[in-house]
Design a protein that fits this description.
The protein has 328 residues and is α+β, with helices and mostly antiparallel strands. It has 9 helices and 11 strands. The chain has 3 domains: 67 residues, no CATH class; 153 residues, Alpha-Beta Plaits (2-Layer Sandwich), CATH 3.30.70.1660; 63 residues, Double Stranded RNA Binding Domain (2-Layer Sandwich). A hairpin with a 5-residue loop joins strand 2 and strand 3. The radius of gyration is 23 Å and the shape is globular.
């Protein structure tokens, strides 16, 4: 940072400062736990002499140390190549008609709430509304360190069981929506995308974006012809800015598609007919005839479904991170 010219490139310099801050946080956390362990050994000797009062203080210190250790342990589970990056979350409604579109919008709200609780910034990049209610699909960018590491645990099919508000007879309905997550990487990625391989479509942006956004074809959809990967962006007023943003998303997706493990994960979202439907869910949210949210992978569950839909996802994410580590 003291080198000549360090601040000439402001964006790169800021990124390095953030990197330094993150590295210091890791080192200081390790030192802190090490120091507490040393203090604990001394405290244990004193507690044996002081009796009940000493033991109470010892238990309090142990509890604090355990929490600090849990935080460190969780960080070791976020050591993937892109785990420290921000995330781009795509939500797609599946089987279930209007209920599925409504369910997709509920999931969008849930991730917005979770991001806010974690101190992350969430920005809606695009959304296609359903004619009756909810959304057919939406793309959300979540900015913050480890956003991708956490949200990668959410990739898969999410199943909802409830009494349908769109059914005249108020019958129970099962709905599905798929969540895809890619790291939000720098625009300067080592991915070559030839112009001839990309189909560019422009269209009028939907939603409540003001007269300019709705009347001009500022929204951009990019289709990568060799792979069939499709991305779109409509949040900017300028078509040029939307295209640049969409290209960044396309590169991030192509980077992951190259990884065989990811291809397998993406295929697992769909059934034999290529639909987002029964049998492939990673988590079930049941509102009727009882209330329960259960992760089918880690078996973590909660009876407070409203709290989960309000963004209380962290226990599910952490339990899956531990489950995933145990399988490696």
């Amino acid at each position: 940072m003291s080198a000549a010219g360090f601040w000439d490139d402001q964006e790169r310099a800021k990124a390095r400062v953030v990197e330094l801050k993150d590295a210091k946080q890791v080192v200081e956390s390790l030192k802190g736990v090490g120091s507490q362990i040393e203090d604990l050994e001394v405290l244990a000797e004193l507690a044996a002499e002081e009796g009940e009062a000493g033991m109470a203080e010892l238990e309090k210190t142990v509890s604090t140390l355990e929490k600090a250790y849990d935080v460190l342990e969780l960080r070791t589970l976020l050591s993937g190549r892109y785990d420290r990056a921000g995330a781009v979350v795509t939500i797609q409604s599946g089987a279930g008609g209007t209920d599925a579109s409504d369910w997709a919008e509920i999931l969008l709200r849930m991730y917005n709430r979770w991001a806010s609780d974690q101190g992350f910034k969430a920005e809606l990049l695009e959304a296609l509304e359903h004619d009756e209610a909810g959304i057919k699909h939406a793309t959300l960018r979540v900015s913050g360190t480890f956003a991708y590491g956490y949200l990668s645990c959410e990739m898969g099919v999410h199943r909802l069981v409830r009494l349908s508000p769109f059914d005249a007879q108020n019958r129970r309905q099962t709905s599905f929506a798929a969540v895809d997550v890619t790291p939000d990487l720098d625009a300067d990625l080592e991915v070559d995308v030839a112009d001839k391989d990309v189909k560019v479509d422009t269209y009028k942006a939907g939603g409540k974006g003001g007269q300019h956004v709705n009347k001009t074809e500022s929204a951009v959809r990019l289709t990568h012809l060799p792979t069939g990967v499709v991305v779109q962006c409509q949040n900017e007023r300028s078509q040029h800015k939307n295209k640049a943003q969409a290209m960044k998303l396309l590169k991030a997706k192509l980077l992951q598609v190259k990884e065989a493990a990811r291809s397998a994960e993406l295929k697992s979202m769909y059934d034999g007919k290529g639909e987002i439907a029964w049998g492939n869910q990673i988590r079930s949210y049941v509102m009727q005839p009882y209330t329960l949210v259960k992760d089918t992978r880690s078996s973590h569950e909660s009876g407070n479904i409203q709290a989960v839909l309000d963004g209380a996802l962290q226990p599910f994410i952490e339990s899956y991170l531990k489950y995933r580590a145990s399988k490696k």
